[in-house]
Amino acid sequence: MSLADAPDLRVNERLHLYPYERLEALSITSGIVGGLAGFYDGLKSSSLRYLTENGHRLPQTVGGWYFYHKKKNYVMIVTGGKTAVHQGLKYSMSVGGFFGLEYLIDTYVRGGTKDFMNTTVAAGLFAGAYGKYYHLSRIQVRNYVRNGTMLGLMLGLAQDMLIYRRGGSVWYVDKMKKMEA
C-alpha cells in the first residue's frame, strides 16, 4: 500500500491539522506576525519620542548629528525589540486562547462534534471576554460580541467548507444530502 492509497486520518480535522498541531502552528504564526507588527510600531513610536525628548537640544555639528542618530537608532532597536516581544506574546496568547476555546467546545461541550457553531460560540465568548478585560462600555462590548460572532460564523463555515471539500464529514451537509435523496 502506497502513501497515496493510505486513508487520510485528518480528513475531518479543522484546517487539516490535529488540535495540538493547529494550536501550535497558529500560535507560533500569530506570534511572529505580532512580533513583526510590534517591532515596526516600536521603531516608529520610539523615533518620534526620541525627537520629542531631544528636540530642544539638537546637535550643531556633524559629529553631534552622528552621535544623535547613533543613540536614536540604539533606542529605536531596543524599544522595537521590547514592543515586538510584548505584541508577539499578546497575539500568540490571544490566538492560542481562541483556538483552544474552540477545541474545548468541540471536545467537551459538544462531544466531538466539529462544526461552525462551536467556532461561532468561541468567537462570541472570546470577544465578550476581551471587551470585559479592557473595561469597555456595554455598547462597545455588545458590538464586539456581535462582530466577533459574525467573524466566528464566517470562519466556522469556511473551516467546514474546507473539511467538506477534502471529502470529510460535515453533519449538516450530510443531513441535507440525505433529505435530497
The Rg value, from CA coordinates, equals: 24 Å
* Beta-strand percentage range: under 5%
Task: Please count the beta strands (DSSP E, at least 2 residues each).
Answer: 0
Structural class: mainly alpha
Which residues sit in consecutive blocks of at least 5 with pLDDT less than 50? none
**Tally of helical runs:** 5
How far apart lie the N and C ends?
A: 34 Å
Please tell me what the overall shape is: elongated
Query: Biggest β-sheet: count, sense, barrel?
Result: none
Strand/helix succession: HHHHH
Counting structural domains, the number is 2
Share of residues in helices = over 70%
- Mean pLDDT across residues: 95
What does this protein structure show overall?
- The chain is mostly helical and 181 residues long.
- It has 2 domains: 17-111, no CATH class; 115-166, no CATH class.
- Helix content is 77%, strand content 0%.
- The chain is built from 5 helices and no strands.
- The protein has helices at 19-54, 62-109, 116-133, 138-165, 171-180.
- The longest helix has 48 residues, at 62-109.
- The model has no long low-confidence stretch (mean pLDDT 95).
Can you summarize this structure?
The protein has 181 residues and is an all-alpha fold. Helices cover 77% and strands 0% of the residues.
For the structure shown, list the relevant keywords.
mainly alpha; 5 helices
Secondary structure elements and their pairing?
Elements: H1 19-54, H2 62-109, H3 116-133, H4 138-165, H5 171-180
Helix pairs in contact: 1-2, 2-3, 3-4
